[in-house]
Amino acid sequence: RARGRSLCGGSMSSETQQQGARRRVIGAPAPSSGSKSEQEASKDDPDGTLYEPPENMPEGTIAFRYNKFQHNARISCFMLPCMGLLMMYGGKTTTGTVVAGAMVTYMLDFYGWKEGTLISVWVTVISCMATLFLASMHLFTVSLYNVTLVYNMLAFCASAGLWGTLQFTSLQRQHPRMVLICERLLFALMPTTPPVLLTWATVATAGAGATHYYLMAYLTLGFLLYVMPVRSSFRVVAKGRSQKMGPAMDELDEMVMGRSESATHCMCFVVFPALIKTSVHHSHMYSTNDDLADVILLHSIPPLIILSLAHRGSIWWMGFDVSKYRVAVSSAIAVLVLFVTGAIEIRVLFHSFRQYIKVGYPWDYVAVTTGVYSIAVMVLAHFDGALEARGMSVVLTLIGAAAALGIQMALGMPVYMLPFGCAGAYFCVQFYYKRKLWDYVSFVATAAMVVFWFIARSFMFLDFEFDPLPMSLKHVCLVLMAVILSSLLLPGLVATSKRPAVVGSVLCLHAVGVCVIELQLHCQFKGIYTPYLG
Fold it and tell me: 112: which residues sit within 8 A by CB, 6+ positions away?
């Protein structure tokens, strides 16, 4: 007991406090020295991971606790796909090494040899590193820059070993500090190493034209899963300490990663996509409008995501209270949204849908910009809470009508179609405030008129026959209209309808329509269907 008191950092007056301190640091007491209730509790908890933290701890104390690793589902989101990827890349040698190591590890664990099981895990990991390194020797002859790719492969293998090590609860009693180090190392590797491997696999499948966007997408997922504040599985907050995420957290606090790691990963999230764009397209960075839009998007989207999640602790490492700077954060978000909206207008709308814009220059830019920025203003006002003020329904209706008119004019719709777009904006605003199904059905009816007119004028006049089903392009367009109608109906039905059968019927209609369209497109000549979807 004296040893237990010294490990806990202070003496406790009562017998209960001494037992609590010993359980926290040393582990559960032996069954022979405990009472009958303690022996029964040990039967229910053979691993010794369930316990209550000691009472009357000093205020603000954060102690180590025995516990099972709580973030397996979070880690497996990146771990399992990358494991399969590296096994396919390494071939039979890597796959055989993994299978043999898993079998040996399972047998050692079955017989209860914990030390041997842990050694087997790391021997398997190191063997996989060796096989992957040997399988990658040809990459060095192509370019020395492939060193970074091989490094990420080996670092990922190390993270797999760390993940396996954290599953050993017995290690917590012998080396509690080592357990905390392994947890922090694992979370430090996961946000950046798997995204590199997944980007590499995506480029090998879909081409390198949008490498920077692939990397940004995977880094965004890694940021949300691992860089956002995550509480450690092996630390417990004592009484008197705030449970909320905030600037009061310390470097070695109850969070898995400290300030320096979180700041580093945020910087990588902001810099890496733009760095990839610069390294690949440095010769024509600003030669076209599309290149300029790419640069704006890559520099604006990551900061926008970080600032948008500031209330959830994405910038806790900066050490200030976000609520005190709400106006500054909201202003920065608004500016970034406007930049992203303008870049999307150039990179997506005018790049991919230019043939559908029927208005000549400069009115095409005026119409599209009016529609796109009106939608952006409505989204900003919704998330800022400005739409809750009195009289905002009229303002929102006017903005929605402006967006609808801008989009309709850009598509070259005649005058008699313009009232349908304005009416759709009106009914959508009414549904936003009143949540009545009739308003939403009216919105769907008016919006469907606009969509059906566009499909009829753009595709239905073409003469094309599909196989294997005896359908012409007109029939496929009718199926597409049914799919769009069901897609428009579903959100309102889910939000307001109390009849699951109606929602299920609409979902079935949507699924059947999508299957018919997929079948018809997939069975046509090469080039009409995206290769990586086949």
Answer: none
b/e map 18-28, b = 16+ CB within 10 Å: bbbbbbbbebb
Beta carbons of 62 and 254 less than 8 angstroms apart: yes
Q: Which residue has the tokens 């490498």?
A: 211
**Helices 392-410 & 418-434, crossing angle to 10 degrees?**
150
Alpha-carbon distance of 410 to 178, in angstroms, equals 62
Report pLDDT digits (tens) over 142-189.
Answer: 888 889 999 999 999 999 999 999 999 888 888 888 998 999 999 999
Ranges in the chain, pLDDT < 50: 1-35, 38-39, 41-42, 44-51, 251-252
What one-character-per-residue DSSP string does 470-501 give? TEEHHHHHHHHHHHHHHHHHHHHHHHH---HH
Rounded to two decimals, the pTM is 0.82
Residue-wise pLDDT tens digits, 68-88: 899 999 999 999 999 999 999
DSSP annotation of 231 reads B
Q: What is the pLDDT of residue 487?
A: 93
What phi and psi, each to the nearest 5 degrees, are found at residue 289? -65, -35
Residues 6+ apart with CB under 8 A from 331: none
* Whole-number Å distance between alpha carbons of 257 and 255: 6
CA trace torsion 258, 263, 266, 272 (10° rounding): -120
> 384 near 330, Cβ under 8 Å?
yes
Asked whether 453 and 413 are in contact (CB, 8 A), the reply is yes
Instruction: Please name the residues in contact with 229: beta carbons below 8 A apart, sequence gap of 6 or more.
Output: 245, 249, 255, 262, 312, 313, 314, 316
Residue 88, amino acid: M
